Amino acid sequence: MCMFIKEAGGKTGSLLVFLHGGGVSGWMWNQQLEYFNRYHLFIPDLPGHGQSRDESDFSIKQTANDLSKWIKEKAADKKLIVVGFSLGAQILVEILHQEPELIDYAVINSALVRPNALLHRFIRPMVKSTAFLVKNQTFARIQSKELYINEEDFTVYFQESKQMKTETLIQVLQENMSYALPKDYHKARAEILVTVGEKEKKMMRKSAEDLVHAHPNSKGIIFPDVGHGIPLAAPDLFNQTLDAWVNKQPLPDQLKYLL
């Protein structure tokens, strides 16, 4: 596997893997590094992103397959926790489908599992006609605010956005908009927490509900007053929630239940 993977934390702890969203890279989890430093942390840059930018071909299924093989080599007898955001959450859903016995705890944050065939058709011409905007700093700042990217991380976000290949961006968006909930997802043995922001689009809320309904051992929660970008928008609450979930403690009171 040619993905760049950052390793951190304590090597004797449980294995905790963070999967980032589309258009960013592993740095989006910087505010989780210190909080979870007692875990053995692995943070990949997904194909076409960050330090894996030379991997130009991207598919959710292939990335899930590659990561599953790599995780098996690293996990041994450790408890395995995988957290995914957006595109990374879709990859996590696919891993749960492909390898139902692999993961102990999964946190699926803002995963779209309702395909949009109409929008999918327009992705290529839309990206081709607007590709020049990627190099525009003003446009990048508008986009970064939508994802709650702070000033400290903006520089790397802008540089990586300019470096991403147009064809890779098209593939990422097409994969994101066409991904559907796998029929065998319910067979995964993991304990699953599905999260969504209160201000996210309706299709994200519906996708979260689909995920909860589809798996007998899952719980859905809503993070108040945030949109698409919970780990960046509310890192303290996100960290407390993840920590409580994997250690079977009560979740923070300010969260709302999805169903």
Quick summary:
This protein has about 260 residues and is an alpha/beta fold.
Q: How are the SSEs ordered, and which strands pair?
A:
Elements: E1 5-9, E2 15-19, H1 30-33, E3 40-44, H2 60-75, E4 80-85, H3 87-98, E5 105-109, H4 117-130, H5 137-146, H6 151-163, H7 166-178, E6 191-197, H8 202-214, E7 218-223, H9 230-233, H10 235-246, E8 256-257
Parallel strand pairs: 2-3, 2-4, 4-5, 5-6, 6-7
Antiparallel strand pairs: 1-3, 7-8
Helix pairs in contact: 2-3, 4-7, 5-6
Structure, explained:
This protein is α/β, with parallel strands linked by helices and 259 residues long. It has a single domain (5-257), classed as Alpha/Beta hydrolase fold, catalytic domain (Rossmann fold, 3-Layer(aba) Sandwich). It is 43% helix and 16% strand. It contains 10 helices and 8 strands. The chain has helices at residues 30-33, 60-75, 87-98, 117-130, 137-146, 151-163, 166-178, 202-214, 230-233, 235-246, and strands at 5-9, 15-19, 40-44, 80-85, 105-109, 191-197, 218-223, 256-257. An 8-stranded mixed beta sheet has the order 1-3-2-4-5-6-7-8, with helices on both faces. Helix 5 (137-146) crosses helix 6 (151-163). It is globular, with a radius of gyration of 17 Å. This is AB hydrolase-1 domain-containing protein. Residues 15-230 form the AB hydrolase-1 domain. It holds the Pfam family Abhydrolase_1. InterPro entries: AB_hydrolase_1, AB_hydrolase_fold, AB_hydrolase_sf.
